[in-house]
Amino acid sequence: MSNLTIDDLEHKMSIEAIGFAFQMMEQHKKRYEDLIKAKNDMENHGLLIDPTLYLWMEKSQNVKLQILMAQAAIDFINAIEKVKLQLEPITKEL
Predict the structure, then answer these.
(1) Where are the domains of the chain?
(2) I need a surface site. Which of 1, 11, 49, 82 has the fewest CB within 10 A?
(3) Taken in order 9, 93, 24, 57, is the CA torsion positive or negative?
(4) Sequence-ordered alpha helix ranges (H) in the chain
(5) Over 50: is that where the pLDDT of 27 sits?
């Protein structure tokens, strides 16, 4: 029987939740990057190529929120990948 307290279990579960979120989001990193690239392309050339779409995108709160979430997901994935690189030498010692 384990001597883990409720706090220990909650801590363990919260760390595992980060790992689970990473595994789920990592699969979609390319799609998030594509969305950010499309937004940047639209900002640079959209008014000339498709003014109607550009103006709709600029006014759409939904699009803005999706872009913010995609960038947050990319930042999260990149941060966890950095941590994984730091953990590799430690886990090899175990």
Answers:
(1) 6-93
(2) 1
(3) positive
(4) 6-26, 29-49, 51-59, 61-93
(5) yes
Return the closest-CA partner of residue 56 out of 65, 68, 47, 67. 47
Query: Given this model, what pLDDT does residue 76 score?
Result: 98
Query: What tokens does 66 get?
Result: 């999706």
> Three-class SS of residue 4?
coil
In angstroms, the CA 62 to CA 34 distance is 17
Angle of CA points 37, 30, 61, to nearest 5°? 50
Q: In Å, what is the CA distance from 23 to each residue of 9, 12, 78?
A: 21, 17, 12
